[in-house]
Amino acid sequence: MRMPLRSSQFRTPFPGDPLAGSPLVLGSPAHKELFCRSFIDTHRKFEPEEIPWPALEWEDLQRLKGLPVWNEATRTEAETAVKVQALGEREKDPLLSEAIALQGYEEGRHAKIIRLLTERYGISVAPFPDPRPPRDATWAFLKTGYGECIDSFFAFGLFEMGRRSEYFPPALTDIFEQIVQEEARHILFLVNWAAYHRGRFALALRPFYDLWRSWAVGSELVGHALHAFTFGKGSSQEGFEMTTHKDFGEITARGFLELCLSENERRLSVYDSRLPRPRLIPSLVRMALRLMPKEAVPNSGASPDADLAKGGRS
Q1: Which CATH architecture best describes the domain 24-292+305-309?
Q2: Separation of alpha carbons 42 and 201, rounded Å
Q3: Residue 52: CB partners within 8 Å, gap ≥ 6?
């Protein structure tokens, strides 16, 4: 059963909300207050060591170990935590610093959760050197954040496929529900952080800022596309989110993209509607769907989760 998202908590303006009943002006102090306070107030406190990891049946354990993601996930989360924390330490604005530092803490918590999971279930992970802080923390934060926008869009769909098909037992899926939702908060914060800084530039300078952002987005799109095309052809595990949806059940490319769209909208819908959302990947996917052939309507008696269930536990 899907864990409900507590939308009423997130949509309700915090006390003293300066934008209550007013239009959002990107780059304004009120905008900064809204996206930072929304992020801080929706943080959930828990310690990774307190997670009650469930005992797994042999088949479920082999599925977990067989996911080609653990090397990449362990390394990426550790690197992301260092990059985000570096910007939090260098940010002069107290409120922005608090919010960014909190995201860095959550990224570090994700890395610790993955490490504890691999230790609990005996999953071998390739060693990697300790991440080093970036020389340009702002560029690293922007580029990494846009990469997360791409990853999260497809990860939302994959996670929902796994939940519907019961590819893993619900006790394990429920643990990662909060982590997946935290990723939605992270990309929402990144988009608003970038929009806030853009709004503070003079109109004549905004095209240069847009060009800078476009370079970050473009490099991430190219990198992710290359990883998707080369996934499984070497030791790298990058590109997992975009290439392995059929491992979780029988679903067409169109069905997977539509699921990613709906899950992306569902996970972001619980937050204040005045905050801008990531738009590029959803827009590109909608364009792709318009060019793809329509699928045949399934039999009226079929369950909407029937095909996905075929890839689940027997």
Answers
A1: Orthogonal Bundle (1.10)
A2: 29
A3: none
